[in-house]
Amino acid sequence: MPFIRSVFHALWMLVTVVPWALGIVLCSLVLRGNLLYWMAVGWLRAAIVGARWILGIQIRVSGYEHLPLGQDSPAILLVKHQSTLETFLLPTLMPHPLAYVFKKELLNIPFFGWAIGRLDMIHIDRSRGAQSFAKVVQQGRALLSRGVWVIMFPEGTRIARGQQGVYKTGGTRLAVETGAPVIPVAVTSAKCWPRKAFVKRPGVVDVSIGRPIPSLGRDPAELMLEVEQWIESEMRRLDPEAYATS
pTM, whole model, 2 decimals? Predict the structure, then answer.
């Protein structure tokens, strides 16, 4: 049954992404900024609704009260990365537009990549090192000033359930450069949607939003250590079964 459900959900995403992506590309000729972004979030919402009704995946969120108030309040979300699910889910949960920092190769994905290329995101060439980070700071500062929150996955790639990756300081370096607080987020998505797996399983995915951590005057490495400790501690609280042998 999980395999059949996964096939139907994949078909659901395929048949909905094509017209939605084409619509975004066409609308980008006359629309800009937040209107185009929320149009794109509409498709992500459709994917999450499909995950609920087709795959049986329920979402449980805690910590909404920790999100900064104010239309222009800046924030940098640093999120545990276990699967594709959280990349679709977070924009549907947040009250502000989000700008992902991602590798430019994703722009080459038919339809999906064409659509995100029209949005205010930060796509980088990882081979360019310091130049790439300078671009992240420049674009991130501009986006944060407009009330757009930046979202990054500090482990850099999807990590298997119960495992811990290496937390890189790019997100906290950006926070220190811009003065924006960081918000750690723990997500147990791999319980239902494992990384690089086609078959998804029904269940409950927890999303826990931590308190904002000020970045002014902080050392990026020390700040990231605080983020890492909170996320990993929270992951073990939310999904103790996965960490029973670690």
Answer: 0.92
